[in-house]
Every structure is written in C-alpha cells, then in structure tokens.
TrEMBL record:
<keyword id="KW-0813">Transport</keyword>
<dbReference type="GO" id="GO:0005524">
    <property type="term" value="F:ATP binding"/>
</dbReference>
<protein>
    <submittedName>
        <fullName>Metal ABC transporter ATP-binding protein</fullName>
    </submittedName>
</protein>
<dbReference type="InterPro" id="IPR050153">
    <property type="entry name" value="Metal_Ion_Import_ABC"/>
</dbReference>
<keyword id="KW-0067">ATP-binding</keyword>
<feature type="domain" description="ABC transporter">
    <location>
        <begin position="4"/>
        <end position="230"/>
    </location>
</feature>
<keyword id="KW-0547">Nucleotide-binding</keyword>
<dbReference type="InterPro" id="IPR003593">
    <property type="entry name" value="AAA+_ATPase"/>
</dbReference>
<dbReference type="InterPro" id="IPR027417">
    <property type="entry name" value="P-loop_NTPase"/>
</dbReference>
<dbReference type="Pfam" id="PF00005">
    <property type="entry name" value="ABC_tran"/>
</dbReference>
<comment type="similarity">
    <text>Belongs to the ABC transporter superfamily.</text>
</comment>
<dbReference type="GO" id="GO:0016887">
    <property type="term" value="F:ATP hydrolysis activity"/>
</dbReference>
<dbReference type="InterPro" id="IPR017871">
    <property type="entry name" value="ABC_transporter-like_CS"/>
</dbReference>
<dbReference type="InterPro" id="IPR003439">
    <property type="entry name" value="ABC_transporter-like_ATP-bd"/>
</dbReference>
Amino acid sequence: MEFFCIKNLNYCYNQEYVLKNINLSYDNKDFLSIIGPNGAGKSTLVKLILGLLNSKNTIQFSGIKKNEIGYVPQHTLANPNFFPRVIDVVLMGLINKKIFGFYNKNDKEKAMMALRNVGMQDFYKKTINELSGGQRQRVFIARALVDECKMLILDEPTASVDSKSAIEIFELLASLHAKGVGILLVCHDINLVLTFSDKIAHLNKELFLHPNQKEKKKSEFLKHLYENHSHFCDVEMSLNSCLCDDTNCHYKESCQKKENCLKKENNV
C-alpha cells in the first residue's frame, strides 16, 4: 500500500538548495534506506515527511496519517543527566494523548506490548542509563511503536552502537517490517543497507532510487558473525568472509562446536 508520494520537492536554507526536484513514493512493502554524504539533505527530507519542516510542495499521504508514523531521531535524550525508567520512556510516546499527564492501566499495557515487540520487556524497571547502546535504541523504537504506529522513520539508528548491536537492530526492523510496519531509515552503513533493504535512495541534494536484490546468505553470514565471534568489524562484513576457514583462527573451534550442535539438533 502506498503511504505517501513526493513530487518535485525543493527546499532551501538561506536561499541555497538543500533538496532539488525530489520525487519519491513509499509503499509499505518496501524496506527503504536513504544513504548519502553528510550535508546531503537526508535529515531535512525526513523532517519534511514528518511535518517538522514546512514546504510549498505538499507531500501527499494516502494509506497513512502523519500521527501513525513513529519517529526515532538520531539524538534521543534531550537531557543527558535525566535517566527515566524504560517503561516511562516508552510511555512518553503516548504523552500527546494525556490531558493531565497521567497514564492509566491500558497505557501501561500498550507500553509493555511495545517493549515485548522489541524484546525489552524484562528491562522495564531499569533506568535508561543502565542499558547498552543497542538496548537503548530498542527502547526508543518501542516508544515510537507504542501509539498505533503503521510506519517507522529512523535517523541513523546504528550511529552510536557497535557492529553486533547494529545487526541486531536491523534484524529487529526487518522482523517488524515482515509484520506490516513500514520502514524508512537514514543510514551510513552500506553493508547493512545492502543486506536488509528492498530499495536504496542515494541523496545528495538530488535523489536517485535503486532497487536492491537482498542476499539471504549475507544476512545469515552477519548473524553467524555476531553469534560466533567475539570480534568482527566492517572488514569481515564487507568481504563476506570470517576467519573460520583459517587453520590458525582461534575462533574456529567454537564455530565448529556450534555447527556440530546445530547438526545434532537437526538430526533429532
């Protein structure tokens, strides 16, 4: 289902074009990633879609309303010295519906459901500073999901996390997308973008849309990396090869043990 359509969109800062003649339609069957250099207009385009910036060019929404879009910004803690509980962070996603700021039982059930959807239900009593970067990002995704969310827009969701957490976040987003949630994100990590995206938009003032044939083997390999290796980085991810085949690799034994266990389970 088409959610929105952008036609001939231009946007300027101080009479200088940031976006030029942007044409883009989004269908929720697509996992869409936007890439491009710094200052290319990616965050500006996201803010225009969300209505955080105004433009003369109207973005046409069809299968979705603006209040059904959940947003996960790059910087998610306005006050770095304020550490609310996880459940309270998620409840903030419902604050626009609270007249006096009080949450009822139904609101808390919604928040717990959102946490279950991102695998963070067991952490609901912890404060946000007790979590790892990847766990925090899951909580912020839950906050965006909590209020009748049909689509997620995320600005650099893996910018402050390690490689393992980045893969886990993309796998979470892929699982949400499989359940019908639209996904549009800005990301610099081309390995993850190529692995998980159906379409990739390269933006540098002008936008060029590329279809992408996702490789199942690539996603399986990335999962293998974070499940079996204490170290992996962009080198292994880019080369699509780890050190398991190296006779001197100190990971080889643990990888083989894991593989043997899986074979035994499959033969039972």
